[in-house]
């Protein structure tokens, strides 16, 4: 057995031990699933998919999402965002990557994300949009590009009024290394799209820094009334 074969076998054994100690669970219902599966069969059939309404035209541009933000999807995202449950990331990445490929294939050159502030990063311990961007990039064997920095401001989740949300994020972002932004078409990733104000402000800053175009992508979106 060669060294590469030995290393591969050791990795398989290590992964097998991890799967035995920490069996994979469906991120939407928490049921045990096979080690090579990303979602259970029931949830795969019953999730609230956006279907032919995956793309939404907003005041600043187009946003795509594979799922509606309700029921099991809402619970899974809240568990991920506020409880740090990372087990669903491979599934989230697969869903968003497929949605982006189907709806925006060939329309972007780079992937970036809507960042949290340093204060929130210290409190939460991770940036959920950065992790989502990374999970979908795994599907394409590329790296997401950091483009934005966020200032401290009240969380959007505490604001229900659309005007209040827009005002809250105005001026909240600044471009990082604008010379690396200029001329590129970006796929801008976030976890949820509600009013679209957060994505819209981030897209505005990217365009101001010279981005040729910005498309939005989230795992979930609220239904339009």
How would you summarize the topology of this molecule?
Elements: H1 3-21, H2 41-46, E1 55-57, E2 62-64, E3 67-68, H3 71-83, H4 89-104, E4 110-113, H5 118-124, H6 128-140, E5 148-150, H7 162-169, E6 173-175, E7 185-193, H8 197-208, E8 213-221
Parallel strand pairs: 2-8, 3-8, 4-7, 7-8
Antiparallel strand pairs: 1-2, 5-6
Can you tell me about this structure?
By secondary structure, the chain is an alpha/beta fold. Helices cover 42% and strands 16% of the residues. It has 8 helices and 8 strands; from the N terminus they run ααβββααβααβαββαβ. The strands form 2 sheets. Strands 1, 2, 3, 4, 7 and 8 form a 6-stranded mixed beta sheet that branches. A two-stranded antiparallel ribbon has the order 5-6. The longest helix has 19 residues, at 3-21.
Q: What tags apply to this protein structure?
A:
225 residues; alpha/beta; six-stranded mixed sheet; 8 helices; 42% helix; 16% strand; globular
User: What's the pLDDT, averaged over the residues?
Assistant: 86
Tell me how many strands there are. 8
**Bulk shape:** globular
> Beta fraction of the residues?
15-25%
Structural class: alpha/beta
SSE ordering:
HHEEEHHEHHEHEEHE
* Main sheet properties: 6 strands, mixed
Rg, please? 18 Å
Task: Give a quick precis of the structure.
The protein is α/β, with parallel strands linked by helices and 225 residues long.
